[in-house]
Amino acid sequence: MAFTRFTDLSGPSVTDLSADTVAVLPVGAIEQHGPHLPVATDYFMAEAVAEGAALAASGSCDITLLPGLAYTKSDEHAWSPGTLWLSASTLFAVLDDLGRSLATGPVRRLAFLNAHGGNSALLGVALRELRTKYGLFTFLLHASLPADQGGASPSGELGLGVHGGLNETAAMLHLHPETVDMSLAERSVPEHLTAYEHIGFGKSVSFGWTSDDFGTGNGVIGDPRGATPELGRKLVDTAIADNAAALRECARFLPSA
Hints:
Blueprint: E1 3-5, H1 11-14, E2 22-27, H2 41-57, E3 63-65, H3 88-102, E4 109-114, H4 120-134, E5 137-142, H5 166-175, H6 229-252
Parallel strand pairs: 1-3, 2-3, 2-4, 4-5
């Protein structure tokens, strides 16, 4: 059982990887996260959780860590300077090209470890595309599942903390505290959305949105004010442990009995 960084391998040594090696691709984003967080928040999170989980899982399975994707589908933040994003068609083409390239070698298992909710739907479509076109076993893991996709949100955020709120801010205070300015952290929770019974984050009817739709004015959807490095460490450590367990299953998963 081993951990490798794909970038450290020579061309010939790539052929030493086994079919059951799980190639882990961190998928982040470069996008506005309000005035208090860096634009690389999602990228930092994807890289940290992917590397930590890959190292933890490699004690019982073979893992190779691919270089991460920083520029992805962030058009919900396109209104803001600092957001560098790819169209859905471009990102899908990139994922297809990467899957095709990986499939020229022995590796047959590819796991996306995603830290940006705006990527999730497209990554889900890519799973089947890469399975049918290149025969890869494909998986989608999350550094943390956002509230608009059924994940938990702190009670103070009323189930609406999806961007730049408590958890993301805490994670950055733990991972890269030098990039966070808590003096600029403000509560920006669109509480009026709680009046809708069916439509909303985590409810039965989803909706298309951009981060300037909610009237918050600063691009944040959540309440970062109570974030601490201690909470961030707990969240990141939990994410690493959960994803390490998932990667162990990815290494042995077969759809048929």
